[in-house]
UniProtKB/TrEMBL annotation:
<feature type="active site" description="Charge relay system">
    <location>
        <position position="164"/>
    </location>
</feature>
<dbReference type="InterPro" id="IPR023828">
    <property type="entry name" value="Peptidase_S8_Ser-AS"/>
</dbReference>
<feature type="active site" description="Charge relay system">
    <location>
        <position position="210"/>
    </location>
</feature>
<feature type="domain" description="Peptidase S8/S53">
    <location>
        <begin position="155"/>
        <end position="412"/>
    </location>
</feature>
<dbReference type="InterPro" id="IPR000209">
    <property type="entry name" value="Peptidase_S8/S53_dom"/>
</dbReference>
<keyword id="KW-0378">Hydrolase</keyword>
<dbReference type="InterPro" id="IPR050131">
    <property type="entry name" value="Peptidase_S8_subtilisin-like"/>
</dbReference>
<protein>
    <recommendedName>
        <fullName>Peptidase S8/S53 domain-containing protein</fullName>
    </recommendedName>
</protein>
<dbReference type="Pfam" id="PF00082">
    <property type="entry name" value="Peptidase_S8"/>
</dbReference>
<feature type="active site" description="Charge relay system">
    <location>
        <position position="379"/>
    </location>
</feature>
<comment type="similarity">
    <text>Belongs to the peptidase S8 family.</text>
</comment>
<keyword id="KW-0645">Protease</keyword>
<keyword id="KW-0720">Serine protease</keyword>
<dbReference type="InterPro" id="IPR036852">
    <property type="entry name" value="Peptidase_S8/S53_dom_sf"/>
</dbReference>
<dbReference type="InterPro" id="IPR015500">
    <property type="entry name" value="Peptidase_S8_subtilisin-rel"/>
</dbReference>
Length: 519
């Protein structure tokens, strides 16, 4: 009897776990093969006008709605769409193993792709410094806010989309009060909890403040106390909450996709997303690997590529905070996409912050694109640059996203000697405005070739001045970075077998040293 009971008990346990595994569902993308070309796209006249101004195709297949027959068929077999993506020609849905097998046998289903990953979110408290009679954060001085102020640029007339983890308390935040007093928030959507009644007043997780902090870095301004946190103080905004923020795992890729499509359909051309997807999937078999940060593997990378190439969107993304993680180190997706503007973080000297993710060596293009100061996260560096871009777009409303990216990179303090630690460095408002108005800027760079017989070289400097040095094994791949203080009126660089080129940033110039060898 005991033996029979044990067998029965084990059978029940095995059956229970088998059925539970069989019935358990996870979220997936279901990508279709085609669309009904007779359908009509639903995009605004503003969106069409944007495309005409940028020389883009006004009518795009990716704007067409999904084939209704496919969706009805899936609903009849108990597969219910969560998010419908026109761009990807896909829906997201919760599926079990049996349903996945069914889908793989359907002629109109191209791919079934799992959704789940780690989110990179960071927060920081802002410090203020005096700039004339206006108090600003250090990063505002670093990028040269005075040149935007003198030109009267503040993002007016520019619409910015922000995709983040929550905007709790934004209405009660004094530095954001102007947004609500002037009705500059044009629309909001909560893709995590669509039934939420109060977008700004209901808090569900500890990360629901994150989008509010991001907004401060884009547009924050306290008019009574006369201090400014962001550049785009007069811009309009659409806000989307796509991440629940209660754990560091992906699960909202489809929400991000839907938010992108929503904003594009409204004619939004500038989008900030301080969310990055890296490792840490709940199912390790579905995890990304560093090698997959290639700008084309992740679904979000595909969408980001479409946004910049086909929709003309300026997409500003935080590079990621895995720089200190020896098992990862590189940028997260969608910062890995060519055309997306990935933002790294520097310290006050202009060196890469330890946590700031670096560009993979296997990419044929440079990542991050540029960087700026942020104490505790690239997620607060990206919105600074978003405000920067808004000022440029106000100056020239018809400028293309490619021209914006080129201007940002060329205005960087390292240009043209960019590297995979901080990209082309910290952008300058003065240089950017000169570039956008096609004025010539005086070059402050030079190249020195050191012959094989020379073991060291002196770089002239002012006594007591600190230089930032990037030692590189290729023109763009950094081996190490360091700061050097001049004890005399120069610093000494010594030859190192691992170092082929060295970039030195002084107060007056950027020097690229090429260590010549016979190899």
């Amino acid at each position: 009897m005991i033996r029979i009971r044990l067998i029965l008990t084990n059978l029940i346990i095995i059956t229970f776990f088998s059925l539970n595994s069989y019935a358990q569902k996870s979220k997936y993308w279901i990508i279709f093969t085609d669309k009904n070309l007779s359908e009509k796209a639903e995009i605004s006249e503003k969106c069409k006008q944007n495309r005409r101004n940028l020389g883009l195709s006004e009518h795009q297949i990716s704007d067409l709605p999904l084939n209704k027959n496919y969706i009805v068929f899936l609903q009849n077999i108990d597969i219910q769409p969560i998010i419908k993506s026109k761009w990807l020609n896909a829906i997201s849905a919760n599926l079990n193993i049996e349903q996945i097998k069914q889908l793989q046998n359907l002629s109109f289903v191209k791919e079934v792709i799992p959704i789940e990953s780690k989110l990179v979110l960071s927060k920081t408290n802002l410090k203020h410094s005096n700039f004339d009679d206006l108090k600003v954060d250090f990063v505002m001085k670093q990028i040269g806010i005075e040149y935007f102020l003198e030109a009267g640029l503040n993002g007016k007339g520019v619409t910015i989309g922000v995709i983040d983890a929550g905007f709790y308390g934004a209405k009660e935040t004094q530095t954001l009060s102007h947004l609500f007093e002037k009705n500059l928030v044009l629309g909001t959507k909560d893709y995590v909890n669509p039934k939420k009644m109060d977008f700004f007043g209901e808090r569900e997780t500890s990360s629901d403040f994150h989008g509010t902090e991001v907004m401060n870095a884009i547009t924050g301004r306290h008019y009574k106390e006369n201090y400014q946190l962001g550049l785009a103080t007069h811009a309009n905004f659409y806000l989307a909450r796509t991440d629940s923020g209660n754990r560091e795992f992906r699960g909202e890729e489809d929400n991000w996709m839907a938010a992108m499509e929503w904003m594009d359909s409204l004619g939004v051309r500038l989008i900030n997303t301080s969310l990055g997807y890296a490792k840490g999937f709940s199912n390790p078999k579905e995890s990304y690997t560093p090698e997959q940060m290639d700008g084309k593997t992740s679904v979000i990378a595909r969408a980001a590529k479409m946004a910049v190439d086909e929709k003309g969107i300026v997409l500003v993304v935080s590079a990621g905070n895995e720089g200190d993680d020896n098992s990862w180190k590189i940028v997260s997706t969608p910062a890995d996409v060519d055309g997306v503007i990935a933002i790294g973080a520097t310290n006050e000297l202009g060196m890469k912050m330890g946590y700031s993710s670096i560009g993979p060596e296997f990419l044929t293009y440079l990542k991050p694109n540029i960087s700026c100061f942020s104490l505790f996260g690239t997620s607060l560096a990206a919105p600074v640059i978003t405000g920067f871009v808004a000022c440029l777009m106000q100056s020239n409303p018809n400028i293309s996203n490619k021209d914006i990216r080129n201007i940002l990179e060329k205005s960087g303090n390292l240009y043209p000697f960019g590297n995979n630690f901080i990209g082309f460095g910290v952008p300058s408002a003065r240089k950017a405005l000169n570039l956008i108005s096609k004025k010539e800027s005086e070059s402050q760079t030079r190249t020195i070739e050191v012959s094989e017989s020379e073991k060291q070289i002196e770089i002239p400097m002012t006594i007591g001045e600190i230089a930032v040095v990037f030692n590189k094994k290729t023109p763009s791949i950094v081996v190490s970075q360091e700061s050097m203080k001049a004890k005399y009126n120069f610093i000494v660089l010594k030859r190192n077998a691992q170092v082929k080129q060295t970039t030195v940033i002084t107060h007056d110039e950027v020097v690229e040293v090429i260590w010549k060898t016979s190899n």
